[in-house]
Amino acid sequence: MEPALSLRDLVKTFGSHRAVDGVSLEVAQGLIFGLIGPNGAGKTTTIRMILDIIRPDSGEVRVLGLPAGGAARDRVGYLPEERGLYRKTKVLEMLEFQGAIKGASPAAARREAAGWLDRLGLGEWKDRKVEDLSKGMQQKAQFVGAVMGKPELLILDEPFAGLDPVNQNLFKDVILDLNRAGATIVFSTHQMETAERLCREIALINRGRIVLGGPLAAVKSRFGRNSVLVEYDGDGGFLRSLPGVARVDDYGGYREVRLRDGADPQALLRALVEKVAVRRFEIVEPTLHNIFIEQVGGKPADA
Length: 303
Ligand code: ATP
Hints:
By secondary structure, this protein is an alpha/beta fold. The protein has helices at about 45-50, 90-100, 105-120, 135-145, 165-180, 190-200, 215-220, 265-275, 290-295, and strands spanning about 5-15, 15-25, 30-35, 60-65, 65, 75-80, 155, 185-190, 200-205, 210-215, 225-235, 245-250, 255-260, 275-285. The chain is built from 9 helices and 14 strands.
Protein backbone atom coordinates (compact mmCIF):
# COMPACT_ATOMS: atom_id res chain seq x y z
CA MET A 1 0.00 0.00 0.00
CA GLU A 2 1.27 3.49 -0.88
CA PRO A 3 2.09 5.60 2.17
CA ALA A 4 -0.44 8.36 2.84
CA LEU A 5 2.41 10.80 2.88
CA SER A 6 6.02 10.64 1.85
CA LEU A 7 8.58 13.44 2.10
CA ARG A 8 12.10 13.11 0.76
CA ASP A 9 14.92 15.55 1.55
CA LEU A 10 12.63 18.58 1.68
CA VAL A 11 14.44 21.90 1.85
CA LYS A 12 12.95 25.39 2.11
CA THR A 13 14.97 28.52 2.62
CA PHE A 14 13.64 32.01 3.41
CA GLY A 15 16.44 34.48 2.66
CA SER A 16 19.45 32.99 4.37
CA HIS A 17 17.34 30.99 6.85
CA ARG A 18 16.84 27.29 6.22
CA ALA A 19 13.38 26.82 7.70
CA VAL A 20 13.23 23.18 6.55
CA ASP A 21 16.58 21.49 6.20
CA GLY A 22 16.33 18.06 4.61
CA VAL A 23 13.16 16.57 6.07
CA SER A 24 12.33 13.00 5.08
CA LEU A 25 9.47 11.03 6.54
CA GLU A 26 6.81 8.52 5.66
CA VAL A 27 3.34 8.22 7.13
CA ALA A 28 1.62 4.87 6.54
CA GLN A 29 -2.08 4.88 5.74
CA GLY A 30 -4.32 4.65 8.76
CA LEU A 31 -1.93 6.27 11.24
CA ILE A 32 -2.41 9.17 13.58
CA PHE A 33 0.91 10.93 13.18
CA GLY A 34 2.20 13.84 15.24
CA LEU A 35 4.62 16.41 13.90
CA ILE A 36 5.98 17.91 17.07
CA GLY A 37 8.58 20.58 17.68
CA PRO A 38 9.25 23.94 19.25
CA ASN A 39 8.13 27.31 17.87
CA GLY A 40 9.84 28.12 14.63
CA ALA A 41 11.02 24.53 14.08
CA GLY A 42 9.59 24.32 10.56
CA LYS A 43 6.33 22.44 11.12
CA THR A 44 4.02 24.88 9.34
CA THR A 45 6.49 25.35 6.50
CA THR A 46 6.62 21.57 6.04
CA ILE A 47 2.81 21.36 6.08
CA ARG A 48 2.52 24.16 3.53
CA MET A 49 4.83 22.27 1.19
CA ILE A 50 2.77 19.09 1.64
CA LEU A 51 -0.28 21.10 0.51
CA ASP A 52 1.58 22.80 -2.34
CA ILE A 53 0.88 26.23 -0.85
CA ILE A 54 4.60 26.89 -1.09
CA ARG A 55 7.14 25.06 -3.22
CA PRO A 56 10.22 23.39 -1.75
CA ASP A 57 13.64 24.53 -2.97
CA SER A 58 14.41 20.85 -3.40
CA GLY A 59 13.11 17.47 -2.38
CA GLU A 60 9.95 15.56 -3.10
CA VAL A 61 6.45 15.43 -1.66
CA ARG A 62 4.04 12.60 -2.43
CA VAL A 63 0.52 12.66 -1.08
CA LEU A 64 -1.52 9.45 -1.35
CA GLY A 65 1.03 8.29 -3.90
CA LEU A 66 0.66 11.41 -6.07
CA PRO A 67 2.69 14.60 -6.47
CA ALA A 68 1.64 17.41 -4.11
CA GLY A 69 -1.13 19.72 -5.24
CA GLY A 70 -2.52 17.69 -8.12
CA ALA A 71 -5.25 15.11 -8.13
CA ALA A 72 -4.66 14.33 -4.45
CA ARG A 73 -5.95 17.77 -3.41
CA ASP A 74 -9.62 16.78 -3.24
CA ARG A 75 -8.77 13.81 -1.04
CA VAL A 76 -6.97 15.86 1.59
CA GLY A 77 -8.52 17.92 4.41
CA TYR A 78 -6.54 20.82 5.88
CA LEU A 79 -6.91 22.98 8.96
CA PRO A 80 -4.49 25.88 8.48
CA GLU A 81 -2.65 27.52 11.35
CA GLU A 82 -4.14 30.93 10.56
CA ARG A 83 -7.81 30.96 11.51
CA GLY A 84 -10.73 33.06 10.40
CA LEU A 85 -9.81 33.53 6.79
CA TYR A 86 -13.30 34.43 5.62
CA ARG A 87 -14.36 36.83 8.34
CA LYS A 88 -17.21 38.60 6.52
CA THR A 89 -18.81 35.40 5.22
CA LYS A 90 -21.58 33.49 6.93
CA VAL A 91 -20.44 30.24 8.48
CA LEU A 92 -22.55 27.92 6.33
CA GLU A 93 -21.71 29.85 3.15
CA MET A 94 -18.00 29.57 3.91
CA LEU A 95 -18.36 25.82 4.35
CA GLU A 96 -20.50 25.45 1.23
CA PHE A 97 -17.73 27.20 -0.68
CA GLN A 98 -15.06 24.95 0.81
CA GLY A 99 -17.14 21.86 -0.02
CA ALA A 100 -17.62 23.07 -3.58
CA ILE A 101 -13.85 23.48 -4.04
CA LYS A 102 -13.55 19.76 -3.34
CA GLY A 103 -16.26 18.96 -5.87
CA ALA A 104 -19.41 18.66 -3.73
CA SER A 105 -22.70 20.14 -4.95
CA PRO A 106 -23.81 23.20 -2.94
CA ALA A 107 -26.77 21.30 -1.46
CA ALA A 108 -24.66 18.32 -0.45
CA ALA A 109 -21.98 20.57 1.05
CA ARG A 110 -24.60 22.51 3.05
CA ARG A 111 -26.14 19.30 4.32
CA GLU A 112 -22.83 17.86 5.39
CA ALA A 113 -21.65 21.14 6.95
CA ALA A 114 -24.89 21.55 8.89
CA GLY A 115 -24.51 18.04 10.31
CA TRP A 116 -20.97 18.76 11.47
CA LEU A 117 -21.92 22.15 12.92
CA ASP A 118 -24.64 20.46 14.96
CA ARG A 119 -22.23 17.83 16.19
CA LEU A 120 -19.75 20.48 17.29
CA GLY A 121 -22.41 22.57 19.00
CA LEU A 122 -22.40 25.36 16.42
CA GLY A 123 -25.76 24.62 14.80
CA GLU A 124 -27.28 27.90 15.93
CA TRP A 125 -24.40 29.91 14.52
CA LYS A 126 -24.53 28.70 10.94
CA ASP A 127 -26.10 31.88 9.55
CA ARG A 128 -23.85 34.25 11.48
CA LYS A 129 -20.78 35.90 10.04
CA VAL A 130 -17.51 34.18 10.87
CA GLU A 131 -16.28 37.36 12.58
CA ASP A 132 -19.18 37.20 15.09
CA LEU A 133 -17.92 33.88 16.43
CA SER A 134 -15.44 33.56 19.28
CA LYS A 135 -11.93 32.43 18.39
CA GLY A 136 -12.61 28.87 19.52
CA MET A 137 -15.89 28.78 17.57
CA GLN A 138 -14.11 30.04 14.44
CA GLN A 139 -11.63 27.24 14.89
CA LYS A 140 -14.48 24.73 15.10
CA ALA A 141 -16.05 26.13 11.94
CA GLN A 142 -12.73 25.88 10.13
CA PHE A 143 -12.25 22.36 11.47
CA VAL A 144 -15.56 21.45 9.84
CA GLY A 145 -14.13 22.78 6.58
CA ALA A 146 -11.18 20.42 6.98
CA VAL A 147 -13.15 17.28 7.79
CA MET A 148 -15.90 17.72 5.18
CA GLY A 149 -15.84 15.49 2.13
CA LYS A 150 -14.41 12.41 3.88
CA PRO A 151 -10.72 13.22 3.35
CA GLU A 152 -8.42 10.22 3.17
CA LEU A 153 -5.65 12.34 4.65
CA LEU A 154 -6.41 15.01 7.23
CA ILE A 155 -3.68 17.56 7.98
CA LEU A 156 -4.27 19.72 11.03
CA ASP A 157 -1.89 22.53 11.94
CA GLU A 158 -2.11 23.03 15.71
CA PRO A 159 -5.74 21.84 15.92
CA PHE A 160 -5.92 22.04 19.71
CA ALA A 161 -4.28 25.44 20.19
CA GLY A 162 -6.57 27.88 21.96
CA LEU A 163 -9.36 25.38 22.67
CA ASP A 164 -10.86 24.75 26.09
CA PRO A 165 -10.68 21.17 27.43
CA VAL A 166 -14.26 20.35 26.40
CA ASN A 167 -13.61 21.41 22.82
CA GLN A 168 -10.22 19.68 22.81
CA ASN A 169 -12.07 16.49 23.71
CA LEU A 170 -14.63 17.08 21.00
CA PHE A 171 -11.88 17.47 18.37
CA LYS A 172 -10.08 14.42 19.73
CA ASP A 173 -13.24 12.31 19.44
CA VAL A 174 -13.88 13.45 15.87
CA ILE A 175 -10.25 12.77 14.95
CA LEU A 176 -10.46 9.26 16.44
CA ASP A 177 -13.76 8.57 14.67
CA LEU A 178 -12.38 9.68 11.31
CA ASN A 179 -9.26 7.61 11.88
CA ARG A 180 -11.32 4.54 12.73
CA ALA A 181 -13.24 5.11 9.51
CA GLY A 182 -9.94 4.89 7.64
CA ALA A 183 -8.55 8.43 7.43
CA THR A 184 -4.86 9.06 8.04
CA ILE A 185 -4.31 11.99 10.39
CA VAL A 186 -1.23 14.20 10.51
CA PHE A 187 -1.22 17.03 13.00
CA SER A 188 1.32 19.46 14.36
CA THR A 189 1.39 20.44 17.99
CA HIS A 190 3.53 21.59 20.86
CA GLN A 191 1.15 19.95 23.30
CA MET A 192 3.10 16.88 24.29
CA GLU A 193 0.33 15.35 26.35
CA THR A 194 -2.03 15.45 23.39
CA ALA A 195 0.61 13.98 21.11
CA GLU A 196 1.32 11.28 23.65
CA ARG A 197 -2.33 10.33 23.99
CA LEU A 198 -3.29 10.41 20.33
CA CYS A 199 -0.34 9.56 18.11
CA ARG A 200 0.88 6.15 17.16
CA GLU A 201 3.94 7.67 15.48
CA ILE A 202 5.70 10.99 15.84
CA ALA A 203 8.46 13.03 14.29
CA LEU A 204 10.19 15.64 16.41
CA ILE A 205 11.42 18.48 14.25
CA ASN A 206 13.93 21.01 15.56
CA ARG A 207 15.65 23.75 13.56
CA GLY A 208 14.27 22.34 10.32
CA ARG A 209 15.47 18.78 10.90
CA ILE A 210 13.89 15.63 12.22
CA VAL A 211 15.83 14.78 15.34
CA LEU A 212 13.70 11.88 16.56
CA GLY A 213 10.94 9.81 15.06
CA GLY A 214 9.10 6.54 14.77
CA PRO A 215 6.42 4.65 16.71
CA LEU A 216 5.79 6.40 20.00
CA ALA A 217 6.41 3.22 22.00
CA ALA A 218 9.80 2.74 20.31
CA VAL A 219 10.77 6.38 20.81
CA LYS A 220 9.98 6.10 24.50
CA SER A 221 11.66 2.77 25.07
CA ARG A 222 14.80 4.15 23.38
CA PHE A 223 14.97 6.50 26.34
CA GLY A 224 14.60 3.59 28.73
CA ARG A 225 12.67 3.26 31.95
CA ASN A 226 15.01 5.52 33.79
CA SER A 227 12.69 8.20 35.03
CA VAL A 228 11.16 8.17 38.47
CA LEU A 229 8.12 10.05 39.69
CA VAL A 230 8.54 10.96 43.33
CA GLU A 231 6.38 12.66 45.91
CA TYR A 232 7.61 13.34 49.41
CA ASP A 233 7.29 15.59 52.42
CA GLY A 234 10.45 17.47 53.31
CA ASP A 235 13.26 19.30 51.55
CA GLY A 236 14.35 17.39 48.46
CA GLY A 237 16.82 20.03 47.30
CA PHE A 238 19.68 17.51 47.61
CA LEU A 239 18.18 15.41 44.78
CA ARG A 240 19.80 17.42 42.01
CA SER A 241 23.30 16.82 43.36
CA LEU A 242 23.02 13.03 43.69
CA PRO A 243 25.54 11.39 41.35
CA GLY A 244 22.99 9.21 39.51
CA VAL A 245 20.58 12.07 38.79
CA ALA A 246 20.68 13.74 35.37
CA ARG A 247 17.84 16.23 35.89
CA VAL A 248 14.87 17.00 38.11
CA ASP A 249 11.66 18.54 36.80
CA ASP A 250 9.41 20.02 39.43
CA TYR A 251 5.69 19.79 38.70
CA GLY A 252 4.60 21.23 42.03
CA GLY A 253 2.80 18.15 43.37
CA TYR A 254 5.46 15.70 42.24
CA ARG A 255 8.90 15.63 40.67
CA GLU A 256 10.15 13.69 37.66
CA VAL A 257 13.72 12.57 38.21
CA ARG A 258 15.70 11.52 35.16
CA LEU A 259 18.53 9.11 36.03
CA ARG A 260 21.85 8.89 34.26
CA ASP A 261 22.47 5.79 32.12
CA GLY A 262 23.21 2.84 34.37
CA ALA A 263 22.15 4.60 37.59
CA ASP A 264 20.23 2.42 40.05
CA PRO A 265 16.73 3.66 41.00
CA GLN A 266 17.05 1.77 44.30
CA ALA A 267 20.00 3.95 45.24
CA LEU A 268 17.77 6.97 44.65
CA LEU A 269 15.07 5.46 46.83
CA ARG A 270 17.57 4.80 49.63
CA ALA A 271 18.88 8.36 49.45
CA LEU A 272 15.33 9.68 49.56
CA VAL A 273 14.06 7.68 52.56
CA GLU A 274 17.08 8.79 54.56
CA LYS A 275 16.13 12.44 54.28
CA VAL A 276 12.43 12.84 53.44
CA ALA A 277 9.10 11.06 53.97
CA VAL A 278 8.42 9.33 50.61
CA ARG A 279 4.78 9.20 49.53
CA ARG A 280 5.25 7.95 45.98
CA PHE A 281 8.11 6.33 44.10
CA GLU A 282 7.31 5.09 40.61
CA ILE A 283 9.73 4.04 37.89
CA VAL A 284 8.34 5.17 34.53
CA GLU A 285 9.28 5.85 30.93
CA PRO A 286 10.10 9.51 30.43
CA THR A 287 7.16 11.62 29.28
CA LEU A 288 7.21 12.92 25.73
CA HIS A 289 7.37 16.35 27.35
CA ASN A 290 10.73 15.52 28.90
CA ILE A 291 12.04 13.79 25.79
CA PHE A 292 11.14 16.95 23.89
CA ILE A 293 12.97 19.18 26.37
CA GLU A 294 15.99 16.92 26.36
CA GLN A 295 16.18 16.77 22.57
CA VAL A 296 15.52 20.42 21.99
CA GLY A 297 17.97 21.32 24.72
CA GLY A 298 15.69 23.73 26.53
CA LYS A 299 16.51 26.44 23.99
CA PRO A 300 13.89 27.88 21.67
CA ALA A 301 14.60 27.12 18.00
CA ASP A 302 14.35 30.75 16.98
CA ALA A 303 16.73 32.02 19.66
P1 ATP B 1 5.25 27.44 15.42
O1 ATP B 1 5.16 26.24 16.31
O2 ATP B 1 5.75 28.64 16.17
O3 ATP B 1 4.06 27.70 14.59
P2 ATP B 1 6.64 26.18 13.17
O4 ATP B 1 7.41 24.96 13.55
O5 ATP B 1 5.34 25.98 12.51
O6 ATP B 1 6.51 27.14 14.43
P3 ATP B 1 7.40 27.62 10.80
O7 ATP B 1 6.20 28.52 10.78
O8 ATP B 1 7.48 26.55 9.81
O9 ATP B 1 7.62 27.04 12.26
O10 ATP B 1 8.66 28.58 10.65
C1 ATP B 1 9.98 28.07 10.53
C2 ATP B 1 10.95 29.25 10.35
O11 ATP B 1 10.76 29.80 9.05
C3 ATP B 1 10.74 30.39 11.31
O12 ATP B 1 12.00 30.89 11.68
C4 ATP B 1 9.95 31.39 10.52
O13 ATP B 1 10.22 32.71 10.96
C5 ATP B 1 10.46 31.18 9.11
N1 ATP B 1 9.43 31.48 8.09
C6 ATP B 1 8.28 30.80 7.91
N2 ATP B 1 7.58 31.32 6.87
C7 ATP B 1 8.32 32.36 6.41
C8 ATP B 1 8.13 33.31 5.34
N3 ATP B 1 7.07 33.28 4.55
N4 ATP B 1 9.10 34.23 5.16
C9 ATP B 1 10.19 34.27 5.96
N5 ATP B 1 10.43 33.40 6.97
C10 ATP B 1 9.50 32.46 7.20
